[in-house]
UniProtKB/TrEMBL annotation, chain A:
UniProtKB keywords: Ubiquinone
Single GO MF annotation: NADH dehydrogenase (ubiquinone) activity
Segments of skewed composition (Basic and acidic residues): 148-159
Renumbered residue ranges of the record's region Disordered: 148-171
Pfam families: Complex1_30kDa
Entry's family note: Belongs to the complex I 30 kDa subunit family.
Metal-binding found in the keyword field: no
Gene3D superfamilies named among the record's database cross-references: NADH:ubiquinone oxidoreductase, 30kDa subunit (3.30.460.80)
Domain of life: Bacteria
NADH:ubiquinone oxidoreductase 30kDa subunit domain location: 30-148
Name by which UniProt lists this protein: NADH:ubiquinone oxidoreductase 27 kD subunit
Species this protein is from: Mesotoga infera
From TrEMBL, chain B:
Keywords assigned by UniProt, alphabetized: Quinone, Ubiquinone
Protein name per Swiss-Prot or TrEMBL: NADH ubiquinone oxidoreductase 20 kDa subunit
GO term, biological process aspect, one: electron transport coupled proton transport
All copies of domain NADH:ubiquinone oxidoreductase-like 20kDa subunit, residue ranges: 26-137
Cell membrane keyword on record: no
Superkingdom of this protein's organism: Bacteria
A GO molecular function held by the record: quinone binding
One GO CC term, this protein: respiratory chain complex I
Record has Protein biosynthesis as a keyword: no
Pfam families attached to this UniProt entry: Oxidored_q6
Automatic annotation (TrEMBL), chain D:
Protein name: NADH-quinone oxidoreductase subunit D
EC number: 1.6.5.11
Organism, as annotated: Mesotoga infera
Domain NADH-quinone oxidoreductase subunit D: start-end pairs: 120-368
Family affiliation: Belongs to the complex I 49 kDa subunit family.
Top class in the EC scheme: oxidoreductase
GO molecular function: NAD binding; oxidoreductase activity, acting on NAD(P)H; quinone binding
Gene name per UniProt: nuoD
Keyword terms, alphabetized: NAD, Oxidoreductase, Translocase, Transport
């Protein structure tokens, strides 16, 4: 495994500043700035991480950042690398990685729909799953589904008499 | 409300109950229990209930579990395409009051605000035995002439339409192909 | 119209000794009337505007192209041999001669049976009412009474086609019961075969028809013309 | 140029297992352009999971993908154990493998039934689903439920196996193996199925890798990529089995591989029943009542080889009682969205339903 780390360190040093940590014996996570994104991912692909498993968006509300994690997997060695970058919450723009992995077009479209992160260079950022959605992107932390569901989809009122006096409709 | 049936209606209901055709449309997670119910082990062909491809020729529309807004639109299309004596069976607690997805922004909580439901089946995904038993109840209900969901859909159509508009914005999509 | 055409055809099928129009039951009359029934269904289905229906009709007609050719060639062989084309006479000749056509023309009988499967739309060749792909093809927009009409039309069609086959190859039977017995046997055989066969694609079905059954029917005609000669 | 017809293999279509709409642009009988519109089964799982505590999510996660619910529980448990740096007792590993292999066979049988259904061979679904029901009976004995078991929990397995279950499993394995000869005659040696699926939807190796396709479709192009071998989890490294591969990469290769994988899974089941050790079956992740578990902060991606391909969860925890973010990666996401757009043009209409059945594409994995 250690050979793997040196190989990684050598790639990373080329891509500039990064933080590197090992999660399990076959999984590493790397945090880089969004500027070095394309070069690092391209390098990793040559190093055998040919399979793009997933692009995940995470809404770090309290420090006003979106985190986007690219999960890469290498079929030969069975190792996973999580390449994550931070991007500002107000103007979330990231370069698209469609040239490296064509399938990324759909992952990016999914993340765009649920977080509102714009991937410039991705031709079709049309809505993929939701239809006629007028609210803010639903996966953001400041969107409350329970309130939305209460307003839009009325439900049956139960007059349950077993509730303790203090109890009642939950929050 | 036991309505007295004319002789002809009673015969018609009896015949109708014996050969219900189920629309083969899996709207939710309960649909995984339909193939075992249709095939060899819990065969519902014995009751004359068989899967049918087109809404035109189907009598029962199964709403199997939760119903997302997008599917609700298609369920309304299919329901309105079906011919008059039509029945809707709601599976599980998701159709009664939202079930496990009570707080989801994409699923409706109460089915009978949008389409008239004739029969509810209990079980978070009812078992094949429960489905067959439910169909037996539906057949008895039809025999007694009480399964008249479709009649009150036509009667208070505006009320249903208003609910549908509230939930969906507008029911019929024009650019179905999302050009 | 579909149902009317088909009912008209049924009148001409001699079922055992029950012959409605003695002089007129010529095979060509039946083939012609059968087409009316199918055309009626075709036009009403395409009128329904559902793309599935028009695709279904397209398939039904191409498949008809497939199975008509070998069936016709075998029929010519039979007519040439028996020197007549009226069904009741053919049945009577077979009974008097004691040998059924299926014995003296086994290849013709096999080709007849395979194209019968096509006519009935039994499993290997039922692409035009394929539920899994085009949602029961032409019948997609029918329901209630109209579906009932078409179902009876299909039932009549089945009776005609199998009746034709029984008269041509199995001697038609002296009494109505013998005819019905043979009818049941042929139908049962068709159902058994169709329950273990998946569906052909349309062009595969036509290719299949124009490969084996066509060659067999040519061999059959050659045998009939040169070896068996004309019946006295 | 003949008129281009727009056709729905829409949500309400017998050929479609599940609920997604394929828009086809058809010329004559061949598909010119095709596109998948998912989203009909979208319930916003990832949002709901953030509102429930770690233990409450257990009731929610198996409901994501219906034909094979156990992989969700397994991946969820693996992710939490990786974050909490907890080692599960030996016996729990073996029981988990038992559940996963039974679920794989059930899902494969369901897929083979689907292939029979879309080609009109209705005896096939009757047989496969009847056998699948026997497996569900065994699930009922072990976990108490037919489809949603909620049996694999973080920290091991909910309760131990009932006695006499080993005999039932062996009886089931012998029964299914006994029937394999009939299955082969009906499906693999069936000439019409062979002519219909030979050369349908050929997938080259570069395309498969570029599309990010995993599972049977990738193995049909010759690459023995199976997560159970490459990144073994549970106790797959203690069990002998091969990964069947083919070279043509067409629909016929795909469903024969599915069939041979059932044989391999039966072999694994036999070895599990022999080698399963005794001992405790679960341990606690953190102290306090199960509903108040706190998982240490961190993010991890756990993935498993499901019957359709690589299935994984990306779990992020901020140390509180509720997960901060869980992202579900279904195996059908690349196969469905990109595969349908790229591979379907050129096939005929009759084969679209068959292509979907052999690619075994499960819409709830895309919509989550």
């Amino acid at each position: 495994m250690s050979s793997m780390n040196d190989k990684l360190n050598e790639i990373m040093s080329m891509a500039g500043q990064f933080t590197f940590s090992e999660i399990t014996k076959r999984q590493f996570s790397v945090n880089i700035k969004s500027s070095g994104l394309l070069s690092v991912l391209g390098l990793l692909r040559q190093k055998g991480f040919t399979h793009l498993s997933l692009i995940t968006g995470i809404d770090r509300l309290n420090d006003e950042k979106f985190e986007v994690v690219y999960t890469l997997f290498c079929w030969e060695s069975g190792e996973t690398i999580l390449v994550s970058t931070l991007v500002d919450r107000k103007t979330p723009v990231l370069p698209t990685i469609m040239e490296i992995w064509p399938v990324a077009r759909f992952y990016e479209r999914d993340v765009h729909e649920f977080f509102g992160i714009v991937f410039d260079g991705n031709p079709d950022l049309k809505p993929l799953i939701l239809e006629k959605w007028s609210e803010i992107p639903p996966m953001r932390k400041d969107f409350d589904p329970h309130k939305y569901s209460k307003e839009h989809f009325p439900d049956r009122k139960y007059s349950a008499d077993f509730l303790p006096e203090g109890g009642g409709e939950d929050e | 409300m036991n309505n007295e049936q004319t002789a002809w209606e009673r015969v018609a209901n009896m015949l109708r109950a014996r050969s219900l055709w189920m629309l083969y449309y899996c709207t939710g997670c309960g649909a995984i229990e339909l193939p075992p119910t249709m095939t060899a082990r819990f065969d519902m062909e014995r009751f004359g209930i068989g899967p049918m491809a087109t809404p035109r020729q189907a009598d029962i529309l199964l709403v199997t579990g939760y119903l997302s807004t997008k599917t609700l639109r298609r369920v309304i299309y299919s329901y309105e395409q079906m011919q008059a004596p039509k029945y809707i069976v709601g599976f599980g607690s998701c159709t009664i009051n939202g079930g496990i997805y009570y707080d989801s922004y994409a699923t409706i909580n109460r089915l009978d605000l949008y389409v008239p439901v004739d029969l509810y089946l209990a079980g978070c995904m009812p078992r094949p035995e429960a489905i067959v038993n439910g169909f037996k109840n539906l057949m008895d209900k039809i025999d007694r002439g009480e399964a008249t969901g479709w009649k009150d859909y036509e009667a208070n159509y505006e009320w249903y339409r208003k609910n549908q508009i509230d939930a969906l914005g507008e029911v019929y999509i024009h650019d179905e192909f999302h050009e | 119209m579909a149902l009317g055409g088909t009912i008209a055809t049924v009148l001409f099928i001699p079922a055992g000794n029950l012959v409605v129009f003695p002089g007129l039951d010529n095979v060509f009359v039946i083939i012609y009337l059968l087409a009316i029934g199918l055309l009626g269904m075709a036009m009403s289905a395409v009128g329904s505007g559902n793309p599935n229906a028009s695709i279904g009709i397209g398939r039904a007609l191409t498949q008809m192209l497939g199975y008509e050719l070998p069936f016709m060639i075998v029929l010519l062989g039979v007519f040439f041999h028996f020197r007549t084309s009226s069904l009741s006479e053919l049945a009577m000749l077979q009974n008097s001669g004691g040998t059924y056509n299926v014995l003296i023309m086994p290849i013709g009988a096999v080709v007849g049976f395979v194209s019968l499967m096509g006519m009935l739309g039994k499993k290997p060749f039922d692409t035009f009412i394929a539920p899994a792909e085009i949602a029961s093809g032409p019948l997609v927009e029918y329901s209630g009474k109209y579906l009932g009409l078409l179902m009876t039309q299909h039932a009549f069609g089945t009776f005609i086609e199998i009746g034709l086959f029984v008269n041509l190859f199995l001697g038609g039977g002296k009494t109505i019961w013998e005819f019905l017995l043979k009818f049941f046997l042929v139908y049962f055989l068709a159902v058994i075969i169709s329950s273990i066969m998946p569906r052909f694609r349309v062009e595969q079905a036509v290719k299949f028809y124009w490969k084996w059954p066509l060659i067999l029917s040519f061999i059959q005609v050659v045998i009939v013309v040169f070896i068996m000669g004309r019946r006295v | 140029m003949s008129k281009e017809v727009k056709l729905f293999i829409g949500p309400n279509h017998p050929g479609m297992h599940g609920n997604a709409s394929v828009h086809l642009y058809v010329e004559g009988d061949t598909v010119v352009k095709s596109r998948l519109v998912p989203g009909f089964l979208h319930r916003g799982f990832e949002k709901l999971m953030e509102r429930r505590t770690w233990m409450q999510n257990l009731a929610l996660i198996p409901r994501i993908c219906v034909p094979e619910p156990d992989i969700n529980e397994m991946v969820y448990a693996m992710a939490i154990e990786a974050l909490a740096k907890v080692e599960v007792p030996e016996r729990a590993h073996w029981i988990r493998m038992l559940i996963l292999e039974l679920a794989r066979i059930a899902s494969h049988l369901m897929a083979l039934g689907g292939i029979g259904g879309s080609t009109g061979l209705y005896t096939m679904p009757n047989w496969t689903l009847a056998d699948r029901d026997l497996i569900l009976d065994i699930f009922e004995k072990i976990t108490g439920a037919r489809i949603y078991h909620m049996y694999i929990v973080p920290g091991g397995v909910r309760k131990d196996l009932p006695e006499g279950i080993k005999a039932d499993i062996l009886k089931l394995v012998d029964y299914i193996e006994g029937r394999s000869e009939e299955f082969e005659n009906l499906l693999l040696k069936n000439r019409i199925i062979r002519t219909r699926t030979k050369g349908l939807g050929v997938l080259t190796r570069e395309d498969a890798l570029k599309l990010g396709i995993s599972g049977v479709a990738l193995r049909a192009t010759g690459l023995p990529n199976d997560l159970r071998k490459i990144a073994p989890y549970a106790r797959y490294d203690h069990v002998q089995f091969e990964v069947p591969t083919a070279t043509e990469g067409d629909a016929f290769a795909r469903f024969t591989l599915k069939y041979y994988e059932i044989g391999q899974s039966l072999r694994i089941l036999r070895q599990i029943v022999e080698k399963i050790p005794d001992g405790p079956v679960n341990i606690r992740i953190s102290e306090g009542s199960a509903l108040r578990w706190k998982v240490p902060a961190g993010s991890v991606y756990a993935h498993v080889e499901s019957s359709r391909g690589e299935y994984g969860y990306f779990v992020v925890s901020d140390g509180s009682e509720r997960p901060y973010r869980i992202n579900v990666r279904g195996a059908s996401f690349p196969q469905g969205l990109y595969g349908i757009e790229k591979l379907l043009p050129g096939t005929r209409i009759e084969d679209v339903a068959l292509w979907l059945a052999t690619m075994d594409f499960c819409p709830p994995e895309i919509d989550r």
